[in-house]
Amino acid sequence: MNIILLSPDDYINDNTVQLVDDRLTHINKVIRAQPGDRLRVGLINGKIGYGIINNVDKTLCSLTVKLDQEPPPATPITLVLALSRPKMMRRIYRMAAEYGLKDIYIINSYKTEKSFWQSPVVEQQSVHKYLLQGLEQSVDTVLPSVTFKKYFKPFIEDELATLAAGKKALVAHPGNHPPCPIAVKQPMILAIGPEGGFIPYEVEKLNQAGFDTVSLGPRILRVENAVSTLVARLFDGAA
Amino acid sequence: MNIILLSPDDYINDNTVQLVDDRLTHINKVIRAQPGDRLRVGLINGKIGYGIINNVDKTLCSLTVKLDQEPPPATPITLVLALSRPKMMRRIYRMAAEYGLKDIYIINSYKTEKSFWQSPVVEQQSVHKYLLQGLEQSVDTVLPSVTFKKYFKPFIEDELATLAAGKKALVAHPGNHPPCPIAVKQPMILAIGPEGGFIPYEVEKLNQAGFDTVSLGPRILRVENAVSTLVARLFDGAA
Hints:
- The structure is a homodimer.
- By secondary structure, chain A is α/β, with parallel strands linked by helices.
- Chain A folds into two domains: 4-69, CATH 2.40.240.20; 77-234, SPOUT methyltransferase, trefoil knot domain (Alpha/beta knot, 3-Layer(aba) Sandwich), CATH 3.40.1280.10.
- The first copy, chain A, has six helices and twelve strands.
- Chain A has helices at residues 21-31, 86-98, 124-138, 152-164, 200-208, 223-234, and strands at residues 4-6, 11-13, 16-19, 38-43, 48-56, 61-69, 77-82, 103-107, 145-149, 168-172, 188-192, 212-214.
- A six-stranded mixed beta sheet of chain A has the order 1-4-5-6-3-2. The first copy, chain A, has a six-stranded parallel beta sheet with strand order 9-8-7-11-10-12, sandwiched between helices.
- In chain A, helix 2 (86-98) crosses helix 3 and helix 2 (86-98) packs parallel to helix 6.
- The model of chain A has no long low-confidence stretch (mean pLDDT 95).
- The interface between A and B is medium-sized, with 35 and 35 residues.
């Protein structure tokens, strides 16, 4: 937790917040903060700044906050990801928020097991928790939007072209395809398959929707590592 | 498991292997293979090819193997990584093997908790297991070498310059540093701190050993995501 994220409910007046829950635990157990200490805080979907601790004990931490900095710029990649195993999805939500992705579409695919659509990783409340963890890591406040599309074909045929308009659209797929480009200077939309990959029909439908197939080389990467590799290559966030 | 890795002990004659353990489980439960099926196999530190199943049951799988392809090229990055939490190290070992890194040095740092040096993630036998998992994912056979250096200063002062000779040497550290370069065309050596980062003294010692400090941008990434981001940016494996 490199930033403590606040919601409007935490405010008791214009510039004072009272924290309980795991943020209080973090302040007591990890930071071991004392009255007068300065902590980095931010308002969810708002600005970043500092909070000075007024008082802190086992039940409550009161902070006077000043928020005056913008959060870091968003990473201009829309992610279209086939639903994978819940364990992997939890990591990918955290990672996507950490990398500054803001628009995420979780779609069905042939190799997505039906049971995954019954798991908590497709419930907004759980997803929200993992996204917050990613923002807390990377010192951002802006929550990504995660949209679930349980039907592959209508999404690809009816909605995807609109989403991809004006963007460089890529689908990563193992095989003999052109290499994934580096440091692209325009908004992107990126489709990534489930464990085991998209089937040829799915790649074809994505190609018809304007997505170019690209390769990440001879190695087969885990889905989560494919996500981080693609984001790291495509977006030159350090420049 | 995208490849079944063999060791010399599995051979009962020049081209027949008998498998038990989790590889047999995988063949039965995940692949659900039958006699006559062709599976991708490789010899640890050797070639890749195919195995044809002679017979398979709950206790044993016998395969006739033919190994005729080279494993994918190594990723020319030596990784010097401060020891972090065991949970994170397990993922990083898998990931490093998956990405084709072959030379890994695990070092002490100020923010490395002493107890980490007592955990199984610094025992070669455990490490071997995680590295194999990474190779099984990415279809490689060549085991990385992992070396532990429990004393920061003598390693940095006496050994690191030799290791870094002829390589582009970089240390990733948050802050106002030049951005991490992209698609470097020479061998590299890359130093990455623990959770919470290197302390200024450690960065300075690395700089003295010829490492340039580079930034990954305004976001603070988890150590494992810093590793994948750096490897993805520095090495253009797809080209």
